[in-house]
Amino acid sequence: MKPFKNFKEFIKILIVAGLSLLIIVPFLSKSNISKTIHDIKNPIPIFSNDKKQSADEDLNNFILKEEPSWTGKYKLEMKELDHLGRAVQSHILLQKKNMPREAREPRLNYNPVGWHNYKFDGKWLMNRGHLVGYQFSGLNDEARNLVPETAYMNAGALSGMDDSNTSSMLFYENRLAAWLRMNPDKWLDYTVTPIYKDNELLPRQVQLNYVGFDKNGKVLPLRIGGNETMAENNTTQVTLENTSPNAIINYATGTAKQK
């Protein structure tokens, strides 16, 4: 290697080399740190596909993760219908005094998306099912709170009602209502979410999440029997199948045929 022509040239080269290292090394380090932070804040989703999912499609893999927050005030809220016109979720926080006193109107006029009905052996297959039941919400013909449900899942029987059937919403609704009546100073936090597969119009499942609060906002776990599990958000969770033992249901369209 030829010697440098003079000492000043040598110093210039050292300065340029030093500046390059000062620029490149922090950049590389910052890139790695930024990537690590991004990966922590945005983990790879459990459910993923090659195309980006829309907000509505993400509902198909819904998991209720937020812990209920006690406000000490009655609250009833429903998410807006999605892009297919499907009900998405209903939530209520109430005490016994907030329960409706008027009897429910026997007839509903609104047909939720995917609504069809059939009589098999003299028994109606489907109900216009309330997410949060009338006995809590006082809502009847509210589109955001209605989905097509089988009579079996909703009322516990192919005909009439059976609230001893742990595969039915009625089993849990009646026991939660009884808990409220026996504990007028307590609060019930109750969320109901229909679970759809892709763009199907009928939910394949309905998920219930509930927890109690005392008058000071202390969490009171509720165990009322049936097919209960504990959810990630510290509520009791029940997942019900929107099926009927006498029918084969096309969830994409809402049509059905007898078994």
From TrEMBL:
The DNA/RNA non-specific endonuclease/pyrophosphatase/phosphodiesterase domain, residue ranges: 70-258
Segment forming the signal sequence: none
InterPro entries, per database record: DNA/RNA_non-sp_Endonuclease_sf (IPR044929), Endo_G_ENPP1-like_dom (IPR001604), Endonuclea_NS_2 (IPR044927)
GO molecular function, one term: nucleic acid binding
Origin: domain of life: Bacteria
The protein's name in its UniProt record: DNA-entry nuclease
Species: Lactococcus garvieae
